[in-house]
Amino acid sequence: MDIKAEMQKIGQAAKAASVKLAFAPAAQKEQALKVAADCVWQQRAEIIAANAKDMEFGCEKGLSDAMMDRLMLDESRIQDIVDGLRAVAAQSDPVGAVLAEWDMPSGLNIRRVATPLGVIGVIYESRPNVTADAGGLCLKSGNAAILRGGSESFNSSTAIHACLVEGLKAASLPEAAIQLVPTRDRAAVSEMLTMVDYIDVIVPRGGKGLVGLVQREARVPVFAHLEGICHVYVDGSADMEMARKVVLNAKCRRTGICGSAETVLIDKAFFTKHAAPFIDDMLAAGVEVRADGVLAKLTGTIKAKADDFGQEFLDMIIAAKLVDGVDGAIEHIGVFGSNHTDAVITEDDAVADRFFQRVDSAILMRNASTQFADGGEFGMGAEIGIATGKLHARGPVGAAQLTSFKYLVVGQGAIRP
Fold first, then answer.
1. Residue 28 belongs to what domain range?
2. Is 106 exposed, middle or buried (0-12, 13-18, 19+ CB in 10 A)?
3. Which residues contact residue 302 at a Cβ distance below 8 angstroms, ignoring those fewer than 6 apart?
């Protein structure tokens, strides 16, 4: 395959499709998403069979257990894909929404109205469900999508993409509205990063290596999705049973997702009063606890090394440390965090307010597991990623975050003196 020529062709088709999508009726997009969801469910056996090939490929490639978990599809996860597409379909259409409106003394009426970004390139690793999430959200927001999945998820992504195309055809929308790059060749990624004539924004979804590559080499604007170095701070006022439940879930529910807790910070006052039974809970669940200071003396823990803090393990490993109250936690997160998701467990409103005000992360939680850092759990149906930057989009990127805006100005023969 001539990669450059193929990507040029894909880019041209996406640009043409984006022009039509920009004013496609909401009902048409909704129909496409519903038909795609139905198709995914009807084709679940074929998708699972395709995924089995990917799992074999991933095993031969030596993927970690966490990456294999991200890659794996079963009927339950396919149901989640279907539910996500249907949820996005049911949402109100963000395109054309009036974001603000006001009148000026000059007689002008001014409206700020949501508009699509144009063509969105999504580069992702392992998780084939991103094919449906990204394709569905781009379509809902009136954007054409060029999807480049990981080499390990090639077969699964291809099968899911075919269902998205069925939805587009059923709704009489351009099939080029959602395109999947038809090769594992990494040269296609390099081409996407420089396609300024066709792609309006790139969204990388994957590990630090992928995101770093995209940020270094892209000439197209990028929505950054960096590491999920998520912290849970257990305050001195925390409810014991709540802390045990939340910490265990934040680490163990799924270790391979970006919302998995990677460090637990414990107020010295809490430890003096209660010790740290949630560390025992994690040890019993098979978590390797890399502990600092006094915590390293607890039975079952191992002494942490300096680089264990600020590490995205994506595995059954967590770092643990005692801190001096909420300010100690804030200071630690400021040094080692990735601006993704951080949680505080506390019964003290003043502590929660201080944590929320002073921790500079895209998502902050009180008395809730960091595993809720997910667009679906935020009512967005799905997400294209968690943006950790500060420009345009931040936090879960759903359909509304994939729009820009324009100003519509109306006068009655107004002239400027």
1. 3-223+397-410
2. exposed
3. 288, 289, 290, 291, 296
Closest residue by Cα to residue 116 from 226, 232, 17, 216: 17
**Residue 130 forms part of a structural domain:** yes
Joined together, the tokens standing for residue 117 give 């970004």
315 conformational bin, left if phi > 0, alpha if psi -120 to 50, beta if neither: beta
Q: Is 6 helix (H, G, I), strand (E, B) or coil?
A: helix
Q: In the sheet that 317-323 helps form, which strands lie side by side, from edge to edge? A: 302-303, 288-291, 317-323, 261-267, 230-234, 341-345, 363-366
Give one DSSP letter per residue of 16-74, joined into a string.
HHHHHHTT--HHHHHHHHHHHHHHHHHTHHHHHHHHHHHHHHHHHHT--HHHHHHH---
Using an 8 Å Cβ cutoff, are 359 and 387 in contact? no
Type of residue at 28? Q
Same domain, yes or no: 351 and 406: no
Q: Taking the CA of residue 374 as centre, how many other CA atoms within 13 Å lie in the half-sphere pointing to its CB?
A: 19
Whole-prediction pTM: 0.87
Residue 279 corresponds to which tokens in the numbers above? 């560390």
pLDDT of residue 208: 76
SS3 363: strand
Q: Which two tokens stand for residue 39?
A: 């198709």
* Structural domain count, the chain: 2
For the chain, residues with pLDDT lower than 50 are none
Do 322 and 175 lie in a common domain?
no
Question: Does residue 385 fall inside a structural domain?
Answer: no
